[in-house]
Amino acid sequence: MAMCRFYRKPMLLIEFDLEKPFCLQGNYGFSNEISPYDYQSKLLLLTMHFPRLKLLWCSSPYASAEIFKEIKAGKEQPSAAEALSIAERFSQIGRASCRERV
């Protein structure tokens, strides 16, 4: 997962729909089986394989904006040029590793 390589504090934002209840559990509860199609299983596997990954739960886009505002407080605005250079380096690393596999 590229986020864990390039960010000190990787985060995954999970934003719920305003028109739906703010909950993770569906009608059937938690299952004992891990399924590649079940979102609860996917979250479990993500947290197991990437223990540094933080999950952010937001009940609405407004809550997401507030969380980003709090996270960003007191920090410098990111540089677009720096972000592009990081993306370019990652792209080059990805192309090189693909060539090595062939």
Essential attributes:
single chain; mainly alpha; two-stranded parallel ribbon; 49% helix; globular; disordered C terminus
Whole-Å distance between the termini? 21 Å
How many helices? The count is 4
Radius of gyration, in Å, reads 18 Å
* String of helices and strands: HEHEHH
What does this protein look like?
49% of the residues lie in helices and 10% in strands. With 102 residues, it is mostly helical. It has a two-stranded parallel sheet with strand order 1-2. The chain is globular and about 45 Å long. The relative contact order is 0.15.
What is this structure's SSE topology?
Blueprint: H1 2-6, E1 11-15, H2 39-49, E2 54-58, H3 61-72, H4 80-101
Parallel strand pairs: 1-2
Short description:
The chain has 102 residues and is mainly α.
